[in-house]
Amino acid sequence: MTAESIDVYERLADALDALPNGFARTESGVELKLIEMAFTEEEVSLAGHLTRFPETAAEIAARVGRDEAEVTALLESLVPRGLVSLNSAAGTAGGGVLDQKVEGEKKYRLRPFLVGWYEASMRRLDKEFAELFEQFVIEGGGERIFAPRPGVLGVVPVRGSLSPEQMAEAEPHLDIDAHFERHDRFLVIDCVCKREAEVLKGHSCKKPMKRCGFVGLPPQTPLGETVVGREEASKLLTKLGRLGHVNLAFYGFTMFADAPQFVGTCNCCSCCCGLFHGPKLAGIEDGPQKSNYRAVIDPDPCTACGACIKRCPTDAISEGPGRMPTGPACVAVALDPGKSEVERDKCIGCGVCVIGCPTDAIVMEPVSEEEWFHVPSSMAEWEEMRLANMAAEK
C-alpha cells in the first residue's frame, strides 16, 4: 500500500473503533490487514467517512466531494458485504443477512466489524483471514468487542427451559413462539463460526452446520436451501436446543422490529462459537450478554448422571462432593457420585441443562432486581448504553 492508501485504511479503522461494537487498534496493525483482505481501496476510502449516524447518499456525496450516483452504487454494493447498513425509519437492515425492502428515504451508516462485516467476509474468505482474526482477538480486538456491556448478542433461554408462568411474564425478546407465529418463511444459514473452525483446523464439531438465523421473511419468499417453512424451522430450532446449542439472539430492534422482540438467533456450541471461544483467546471473562435467569438444581431428584455437566457451555456445572455409601455391602473407599452443583457466576442462563435433565431436577430462576438487565428499547439506546460503559472503563 502507498502512504495515501495507508491513510484511508487507518481512517476506516478509526471510524470502526468509534462505533459502540469497537475495533481495537493494535501495535501490529493486524486490523488493517483484515480490512485490506475484505475491501478495495476505493471502498475503504468512502466507508471511512461514514459514522453510526444514518445519512442519505446525497449527504455523503456532498461531504466527500464525489458524484452522488457513484457514491450510491458503491454504498449499495457494500450493504450485502456487511460494511454498510441501510436504514429506514423502522430500523437497521441485516447487512448481508436479509434483503429487506426499505421504505422511505434510504440512509446509510457504517456497520461494525462484529457482528457485521466479519461474518460476511468469513463466508467468502479463507484460512488467512481466519488466522488474522484470531491474532486480532488476542492482540486486543477481543477485549474491545466482547468485554463492554451490553454484549453484542444476548442469551435467550432455549424453548422449554422457562416455565409457562415465567413465559407469561417474559420479556418480548424471549418469546420464540411468537416469532414463529408472525412469519411463514425463515432464513436459516450455515454457522460462520463453525466454518472458521473448519478453515483453521480442517475439522469442527459434529453438530449441524446449518443452524443460524431463523429470521422471518415475507410469505412470498420462495422456499430453498436457506429458506424454510415454519414447521421445518420450528422443528430444527427445537432439535438444536436438544443437541445443546445456546440461543445467542439479535435484539429485535436491530432487524426492523418496532420494539424489542425475538427476531432470530445464532445457535451456538461452545466448541466453535466466537462468543465463547473469542473471550478465552482474549483472556477475558465476559462473552454474550447473560439472560435474566440462572439454573438451580434440586439435589433430591438429581441422580448425579452428569448430563447437565456435559451440556453446560460455560463449565458452570460440576460434580459436588461424593457421599459415603451406607449399608452392609458398602466399600469403605467407594463414594457415591456427587450431585451436580451450579457455579452461579459462570451460569449464563441459557437453559440447555434444564431441557437435558432426565429427572427434571433443574429449573430456571430469575435474577434479582439489582442484577436484572433491562433490554434497551432501541438500537440508539443500546449504543448509548454501551458507549457510556466503554467510556467509564477507560
Itemize the secondary structure elements and their pairings.
Elements: H1 3-17, H2 30-38, H3 41-47, H4 57-64, H5 68-78, E1 84-88, E2 91-92, E3 107-110, H6 113-122, H7 127-146, E4 154-156, H8 164-168, H9 176-182, E5 185-190, H10 192-201, E6 210-217, E7 227-229, H11 230-242, E8 246-249, E9 265-268, H12 274-282, E10 293-297, H13 307-311, E11 317-319, E12 340-342, H14 352-356, E13 362-366, H15 379-393
Antiparallel strand pairs: 1-2, 1-3, 4-8, 5-6, 5-7, 8-9, 10-13, 11-12
Distinctive features:
394 residues, alpha+beta, Arc Repressor Mutant, subunit A, three-stranded antiparallel beta sheet, 15 helices, 13 strands, 38% helix, 14% strand
Distinct helical segment count: 15
% residues in beta strands: 5-15%
Outline type: globular
| Beta-strand segment tally | 13
For the largest sheet, list the strands in their spatial order.
Answer: 2-1-3
Helix and strand run: HHHHHEEEHHEHHEHEEHEEHEHEEHEH
Main pleated sheet: 3 strands, antiparallel
Regions with little confidence, pLDDT below 50 for 5+ residues? 88-101, 330-335
